[in-house]
Amino acid sequence: MTQTKRPDSTAHTAARAPAVAFSGVTRSYGAVRAVDGLDLEIAAGETVALLGRNGAGKSTTLALLLGLLPPGTGSVRLFAGTPETAVRTGRVGAMLQDGKAVPRVTVRELITFVAGTYPRPLDVTETLELAGLGEFGGRRVDRLSGGQAQRVRFAVALAGNPELLVLDEPTAALDVEARRVFWRAMRAYARRGNTVVFSTHYLEEADEHADRIVVMDAGRVVADGTGDAIKRRAGGSLVSFDLAGASTGPLAGLPGVSAVEVRGDRALLRTADSDATVVALAGLGLVRGLQVAPAGLEDAFLALTSGNASPTPAPAATRSAKELA
Ligand SMILES: Nc1ncnc2c1ncn2[C@@H]1O[C@H](COP(=O)(O)OP(=O)(O)OP(=O)(O)O)[C@@H](O)[C@H]1O
């Protein structure tokens, strides 16, 4: 399908405008600064993951993006206009964390109703297919499993045929198979040239499904780039060895080393130059049980958030997706 062309007198300007532009945005809840000086631009057509621990400011950022919260300072623009205008005209669809099922209506009735509230909706059958609900159109929405109900919320977000899709922790309640179905649907929608912004705690989901990862911590962006770029930025390798009673004093000063951690009798060093670090360790006679492993995305994430620069011990290759809540 081709994206419905939006009749818009500012179409020429809007086509070149970023889908999302935060400029110097802050937002506090009482004494808590949830979003702290956020500058963020997302080009039309990008798929961006907002990655961060609990309380990093992701949901607040998405609420600001949707115009549900006004910024304390700074400005938020969607397609060069206000979030309110973009939402009202159906250019934005959102799936937030606290969606509730409407009792007694069928899935198709609900999506038909929602589509009817938008100026240029997606075809209802197409919406149901895209959201993986092809067989469930006749089912009541209050008689679905958690994963199926999540797909209904996704269909509600798609119904208006939005150019920008905003998803707050979209796979939080889903099992592995439901996640796979969900991401396939999301990618299909993004491939049509739409912009997708989703928040997640899952590093591997961000790495696998986003073109770009924006890592947030304490309301700020602490890294912004592809998964590979973030891994590189956080430092390349982890070197570990048996201390065998040796002093840890000189370790932090070895070439390439940015962090040192001692676990039991093993020392773990994060290093940007593992060759130079290993040569220096050999010079000190510290080669017992020596291991070198690439730092994974999880290591990068830990190094970038909450000032935690400690390396983690297991080789990245042995780790699976893990929630960092
Ligand atoms: N309504 C509120 N009142 C007071 N403080 C709030 C409120 N909502 C969020 N906060 C605080 O603002 C900060 C950012 O919260 P936010 O929900 O944006 O983070 P998050 O990254 O989405 O977290 P999570 O992954 O747990 O959803 C946290 O310290 C949180 O406790």
TrEMBL record:
It is found in: Cell membrane. Pfam families: ABC_tran. GO terms for cellular component: plasma membrane. GO terms for molecular function: ATP binding; ATP hydrolysis activity. InterPro entries: AAA+_ATPase (IPR003593), ABC_transporter-like_ATP-bd (IPR003439), ABC_transporter-like_CS (IPR017871), ABC_transporter_ATP-binding (IPR050763), P-loop_NTPase (IPR027417). One of its GO terms (biological process) is response to antibiotic. It is a peripheral membrane protein. Its main location: membrane. Residues 20-243 form the ABC transporter domain. CDD domains: ABC_DR_subfamily_A. SMART domains: AAA. Keywords: Antibiotic resistance, ATP-binding, Nucleotide-binding, Transport. This is ABC transporter ATP-binding protein.
